[in-house]
Task: inverse folding
C-alpha cells in the first residue's frame, strides 16, 4: 500500500474535474457556471438558475418558458404515492420521508432509469425538479395531520410549494409575494456548492451506475446531518438554548472555545471558506428585509447578530478563520415564514436539487468517470489463526 496517501475527510483530494461551480474560499467567491452568486441572487430566479446549472448556459426566454411548462406538467404525484406517506409515523422527520419517497420514485418510473439513455435522464430530471416540492409539502402536511393539496399549476415552482405547504382547501389562499421571492432567493443560494458531502455522495452512488433517483436519495441522507444541511435547524436550537439560559452570548462563546461537551458554534466554519461565506452575506441581508416586511422583528435575530459579532472579534475564531456560513441566518428566515425547524433541511434539499442533478449528469457524461472507490491504510491485527469458541 506504499502508493496510498491518507487524506481523512478528503481535505486535499479532488475527486473529479467539474465545469459547474467555482469557489475561492480565501476570497469568499462563489460562481455558478462563471456567473457570480451576487448577480444571480439579484437578477435570476431559482428556475433559471436551475436551468443554468443543469444545462450549462442561461436559457433564452423560450427555453426558460419550455422548462417551466414541462416542470408544471409533472408536479403531481401518482395517487399510489399518497398511501406511501401514510405508512410513516405521524411524527416522522420529513428528511427520511423525503429521501424514501425519492428512492420510491424509481419504482414508479422503471422504464426511464437507464443512466446512459439521455431521454430517460431528461425526463427523470424534470420529474425530480417538479415532484420534490410536492413530496416535501406532503411530508409536512402528514406531520400536521392535514390533507394533501394538489399542486396548482397556475403557480410557479416556489409558489406552488408554498401553496401545497400552507394552503387550506376551505379558504382563499393569499400567496405572500415577499415570502415567495425570499424563498426563491434562498433556493438560488443553495443550488450548488461543488463537491460537498451530499454532492460527493450523489456522484459516488451514481459512479456505480445506480439510477438518478437512488443517487439523489442518498444525497438527501448525506445532507441531513448537523455538520451539513442539518446545521440550519441546529442553529435555531442553539439560539433558543442561549436565550433560555439567560441570553449570555459571551458565556456561550467561551463554552465553544473550551470545547465543553463538544459544543460548537453551529452555522460557523466551513471546509472551503476561510473568509465570509458570500451566501451568508446575502442571507443576512434577506433576513433584515423579511423581518422588516413580515411580522416585525425577531429577538433571536438580534441574538444571532450579537453572537456573530462576538465570534468575529474573538481570537479563537479569527485564528481558525471561522466565519458565518450559509446556515447561520437561514433558520431564522424559515421560521418567520412559518416552517417548523424539522423542515429547514428539507428546504435546503429543494434548493440543492438542481446542483445534485447537474453534478450527476456531468459525472455520467464524463468519459473519465470510474467507480468511486477510496483506498485505506490498514491498521488492524496482522494475520492470526482462528480460535474455537470454547478455547477463547
Ligand atoms: N465552532 C467551534 N469551533 C469550530 C467550528 C465551529 N463551528 N468549526 C470549526 N471549528 C474549529 C475546530 O474545532 C478545529 O479546531 P482545532 O484546530 O482546535 O481542533 C478548527 O476549527 C478546524 O475545524 P475542522 O473541524 O478541522 O474543520 P472542518 O473543515 O473539518 O469542518 C465544518 C467544517 C463545517 C464541519 C465545521 O466548521 C463545523 O462543524 N461547523 C458547524 C456546523 C455547520 O455550521 N455546518 C454547516 C456548514 S456550511 C453548509 C453545509 O455544508 O451544509
Result:
Amino acid at each position: 500500500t506504499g502508493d496510498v496517501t491518507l487524506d481523512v475527510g478528503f481535505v486535499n483530494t479532488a475527486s473529479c474535474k467539474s465545469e459547474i461551480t467555482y469557489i475561492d474560499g480565501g476570497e469568499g467567491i462563489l460562481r455558478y457556471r462563471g456567473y457570480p452568486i451576487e448577480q444571480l441572487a439579484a437578477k435570476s430566479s431559482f428556475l433559471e438558475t436551475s436551468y443554468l446549472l443543469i444545462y450549462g448556459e442561461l436559457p433564452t426566454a423560450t427555453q426558460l418558458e419550455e422548462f417551466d411548462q414541462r416542470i408544471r406538467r409533472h408536479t403531481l404525484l401518482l395517487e399510489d404515492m399518497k398511501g406511501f406517506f401514510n405508512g410513516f409515523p405521524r411524527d416522522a422527520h420529513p428528511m427520511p420521508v423525503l429521501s424514501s419517497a425519492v428512492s420510491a420514485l424509481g419504482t414508479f418510473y422503471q422504464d426511464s432509469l437507464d443512466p446512459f439513455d439521455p431521454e430517460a435522464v431528461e425526463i427523470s430530471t424534470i420529474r425530480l425538479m417538479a415532484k420534490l416540492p410536492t413530496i416535501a409539502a406532503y411530508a409536512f402536511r402528514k406531520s400536521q395531520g392535514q390533507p394533501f393539496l394538489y399542486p396548482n399549476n397556475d403557480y410557479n415552482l416556489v409558489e406552488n410549494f408554498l401553496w401545497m405547504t400552507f394552503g387550506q382547501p376551505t379558504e382563499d389562499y393569499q400567496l405572500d409575494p415577499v415570502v415567495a421571492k425570499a424563498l426563491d432567493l434562498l433556493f438560488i443560494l443553495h443550488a450548488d456548492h461543488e463537491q460537498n458531502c451530499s454532492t460527493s455522495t450523489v456522484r459516488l452512488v451514481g459512479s456505480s451506475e445506480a439510477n438518478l433517483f437512488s443517487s439523489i436519495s442518498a444525497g438527501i441522507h448525506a445532507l441531513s446531518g448537523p455538520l451539513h444541511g442539518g446545521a440550519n435547524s441546529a442553529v435555531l436550537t442553539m439560539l433558543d438554548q442561549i436565550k433560555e439560559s439567560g441570553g449570555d452570548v459571551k458565556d456561550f462563546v467561551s463554552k465553544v472555545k473550551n470545547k465543553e461537551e463538544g459544543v460548537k458554534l453551529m452555522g460557523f466554519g466551513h471546509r472551503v471558506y476561510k473568509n465570509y461565506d458570500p451566501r451568508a452575506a446575502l442571507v443576512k441581508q434577506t433576513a433584515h428585509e423579511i423581518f422588516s416586511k413580515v411580522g416585525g422583528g425577531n429577538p433571536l435575530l438580534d441574538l444571532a447578530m450579537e453572537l456573530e459579532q462576538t465570534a468575529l472579534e474573538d481570537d479563537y475564531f479569527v485564528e481558525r478563520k471561522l466565519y458565518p456560513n450559509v446556515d447561520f441566518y437561514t433558520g431564522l428566515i424559515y421560521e418567520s415564514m412559518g416552517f417548523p425547524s424539522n423542515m429547514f433541511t428539507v428546504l435546503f434539499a429543494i434548493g440543492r436539487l438542481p446542483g445534485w442533478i447537474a453534478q450527476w449528469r456531468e459525472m455520467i457524461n464524463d468519459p473519465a468517470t470510474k467507480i468511486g472507490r477510496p483506498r485505506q491504510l490498514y491498521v488492524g491485527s496482522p494475520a492470526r489463526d482462528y480460535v474455537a469458541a470454547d478455547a477463547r
In short: The pocket of carboxymethyl coenzyme *A is lined by residues 9, 196, 227-229, 231, 256, 264-271, 320, 322, 325-327 (CB under 6 Å). The chain is about 55% helix and 5% strand. The longest strand covers residues 21-24. The chain has two domains: 21-224+345-365, 231-337.
